[in-house]
TrEMBL record:
Signal peptide start and end residues: 1-21
GO-annotated molecular function: siderophore uptake transmembrane transporter activity
Subcellular localization(s) per the UniProt record: Cell outer membrane
Identification of the protein by name: Outer membrane receptor for ferrienterochelin and colicins
Transmembrane segment boundaries: none
Species classification: Bacteria, Pseudomonadati, Bacteroidota, Sphingobacteriia, Sphingobacteriales
GO terms for biological process, alphabetical: siderophore transmembrane transport
Pfam families the UniProt entry points to: CarbopepD_reg_2, Plug, TonB_dep_Rec_b-barrel
Length: 737
């Protein structure tokens, strides 16, 4: 009996060896732009096992049955690649793969906002969120202001339901505490934040970087709650020609056209944006325009010149003109400034110049200048203001052993003037506000090992009114492996305030400005703990990025308009403000073409005032405790059809009600959902269309006392969602690479 068992086992072993001998193997190297890619997942259709590439991008599949096979290559932050192969019995097949980086939110994109120098996002000790136009194309809009609403924890907030002024809130902090940069320079600030964001077309954007939390150690004043850095396209790598034309069912028309050309050693990019909305809509029957009518044109021109020793110089100029108005439906330009028919009319002229030059010995000069003119009427109140901001900075960087040093000498000079009493001296003579702000900063990133790095920095500024200002920061990054990263950051931010802003449009011009005490700069202290990881599985991968944040804010400057009707009394807040919470971003990517991006934020933002010895807590307006974003995409490959479902969910938020207001003091939960279909005909042409605000959510009664717009109780600030209901849109893109 034992002999029979022995022969059976022997025969089975021989059969097994014969089968194994007939099987083959597949090997190869996976790269992207010449660099090997680690942790690429390789799977064979119909087989449950998955394999991964090593640090050199090498992979090998053994004991593979012969025949026609389909291989799937999946890696986080890279386009999926499929390859059909024919494997003969006993053969070893070599299949080398080149993966293309995806154009969505990228973990390993090069970023500059966190450390003011180019560094991989994964290696940056400061948490930086990166977004490219591919994300914003999932829900196209005519301006960056609207597009930023797709970012978790960032809220574009309209501050007026008639003129549609707006700013950007980060983690619940008000717009003045968000710094807006273009190519790392303070182009959009103070007066310009009201309308300047609307004039930035998507066609000029390469990517957008968001830092949540103070960044004044590198960027100075205004970077109190966070910053948004808009990186413009490089002329050398831009398409030769591209255009994006779109229209909505409300009669909004947008055109983006860009082309590049070469002149000697220089590459140049020219972009033109035009937006027009001239339809009168009044869906809530309050006899006021739902959205301001706009006519806006923008021209952008950027040059890049190669210098000796691999150095370069860049120069960009942009001009924006906009004419907008909102108000009663029968308003015309003839009634501008009159007291018979109410309207708010704003004309904007804006010029920007920015650039940088690489110098020998790792020095760089950054420079920018912008001029902003606003000519406006709010009913009968005229507001005419100009602002000029000149900025220059000398940067130096040097690697010494394990240390990466960065130092800089920044200088900002601002001239602000308007027609209110805010910029008039006591004797009535015009006295524009002039701010001179030189500084110096030093930063050291110490890479103690492959896993741990420490970043420390400090900045000193001298303000011509506030005096000396110091802003330090410290950050730790620990990466135990290539898929997990922990960051702990703490820092200080500050803001020197231009008191005389558009709020003075409500004044008669006869008030005396009184500064009760020596005003101190507004300051914030922030702690942020961030964790990111990549989880691979048989059907794709999952990317997780979460943060816990806490910001303590002091010295808020407030204006008292009520104590004395002949005066405006300014003083620092006798208390503090808090912004705390947590945020989570997730990316799901599957080999079947399905991609899901989800983001959620919980925050608690409030202010405590010492009033007559008692601390009074006031919740921050327009700061929902719970909010979230989502983007679900699926590609039907045979049809070359992309389906995008995007949206933003906001929980209840406190709203600015007025005495005797019948409107609720808190908003409801609401979901702004959008759907889009994109059909690609070839590499050059694609047509897209869909619906915005698919659930048709519209706030009720955005205006208080619209029947008496010239009366003292008329209020326009009650705004928490778009006034437009469901609307269709259609567009076409044409690109020549």
């Amino acid at each position: 009996m034992k002999q029979y068992i022995y022969y059976i086992v022997l025969m089975l072993s021989l059969c097994s060896l014969q089968t194994a001998a007939q099987n083959g193997s597949i090997k190869g190297v996976i790269k992207s732009k010449g660099k090997p890619i680690e942790n690429v997942q390789i799977s064979i259709e119909g087989r449950p096992n998955a394999f991964f590439s090593d640090q050199k991008g090498f992979y090998q599949l053994t004991d593979v049955p012969p025949g026609k096979l389909k291989l799937y290559f999946t890696a986080y932050d890279f386009e999926n690649e499929n390859r059909s192969v024919q494997l003969k019995p006993g053969d070893t097949l070599t299949v080398n793969i080149e993966l293309a980086p995806v154009n969505t939110k990228m973990l390993d994109e090069v970023v500059v906002s966190g450390t003011m120098k180019e560094v991989s996002k994964l290696k940056s000790p400061i948490p930086v969120e990166v977004y490219t136009p591919t994300l914003f194309k999932k829900n196209p809009s005519p301006s960056i202001f609207e597009s930023l609403g797709m970012i978790n924890g960032v809220q574009p907030q309209l501050n007026c339901n008639v003129c549609n002024t707006g700013d950007i809130h980060i983690n619940g902090m008000e717009g003045p505490y968000t710094m807006i940069l273009i190519d790392g320079m303070p182009i959009v600030s103070s007066l310009a934040t009201v309308y300047g964001l609307s004039g930035i077309p998507n066609s000029m954007v390469k990517r957008i970087e968001v830092v949540k939390g103070p960044a004044s150690t590198l960027y100075g004043s205004e970077a109190v709650g966070g910053l948004v850095n808009i990186i413009t396209k490089d002329p050398g790598s831009s398409p030769r020609f591209n255009t994006d034309l779109s229209a909505t069912g409300y009669g909004e028309y947008n055109a983006d056209v860009a082309a590049k050309f070469k002149a000697g050693r220089a590459n140049a990019l020219v972009g033109v944006n035009y937006f027009n909305y001239s339809g009168l809509h009044d869906s809530n029957s309050d006899y006021f325009t739902d959205v301001t009518l706009q006519n806006r044109a923008s021209v952008f021109n950027k040059w890049s010149l190669g210098l000796a020793s691999g150095r370069s110089a860049n120069l960009a100029v942009r001009y924006v003109y906009e004419n907008r108005w909102g108000g009663q439906l029968n308003w015309t330009p003839d009634f501008r400034g009159s007291d018979s028919i109410y309207g708010e009319s704003v004309k904007t002229n804006r010029f920007e110049l920015l650039g940088n030059i690489d110098l020998p010995n790792q020095f760089v000069v950054d420079y920018s200048y912008n001029y902003h003119l606003q000519d406006s009427y709010y009913g009968i109140n005229k507001f005419y203001a100009t602002q000029q901001v000149a900025f220059a900075q000398l940067r130096w960087s040097k690697n010494i052993g394990q240390h990466e040093l960065l130092a800089g000498l920044p200088l900002r000079y601002t001239i602000y003037d308007d027609n209110t009493s805010g910029t008039k001296a006591i004797n009535g003579v015009n006295a524009p506000s002039k701010t001179f702000l030189p500084g110096i900063f030093v930063q050291d990133e110490w890479k103690t090992s492959e896993k741990l790095s420490i970043l420390a920095g400090i900045r000193y500024d001298h303000h011509n009114e506030h005096g000396n200002i110091f802003t330090p920061r410290l950050s730790f990054k620990y990466a135990p492996n290539t898929t997990n990263t922990i960051r702990l950051s703490a820092g200080n931010g500050y803001r020197v305030v231009n008191l005389f802003t558009e709020d003075h449009a409500a004044l008669t011009g006869a008030r005396e400005v009184v500064i009760k005490n020596d005003l101190l700069p507004e300051r914030s202290w922030n702690v942020n703990l961030n964790y990111s990881t990549i989880i691979s599985h048989s059907a794709g991968f999952i990317g997780l990025d979460g943060s816990v944040f806490y910001t303590y804010f002091t010295n808020k400057i407030t204006g008292d308009f009520l104590t004395d009707p002949s005066k405006i009394i300014y003083d620092n807040l006798n208390g503090y403000a808090i912004s705390k919470g947590l945020t989570l971003n997730t990316d799901f990517s599957f080999t079947n073409g399905l991609k899901i991006m989800l983001g959620a934020t919980y925050m608690d933002v409030y202010q405590k005032d010492d009033i007559n010895g008692q601390m009074i807590t006031t919740p921050q307006l327009f700061a929902p405790k719970i909010s979230g974003t989502y983007a679900v995409s699926y590609t039907i490959q045979p049809w070359k059809l992309l389906i995008d479902l995007t949206g933003k969910v906001n929980g209840p938020m406190h709203l600015p009600t007025v005495p005797n207001d019948f409107r609720p003091a808190k908003s409801p939960y609401y979901n702004l959902m959008n759907i889009q279909l994109t059909k690609r005909f070839n590499k050059d042409i694609e047509i897209y269309g869909g619906c915005k605000n698919l659930l048709n959510f519209v706030p009720q009664n955005p205006l208080f006392k619209p029947e008496d717009p010239f009366g003292p109780e008329f209020d326009t600030t009650y705004n928490y969602a778009p006034i437009q209901g469901i609307k269709g849109f259609l567009g076409i893109r044409y690109t020549v690479k």
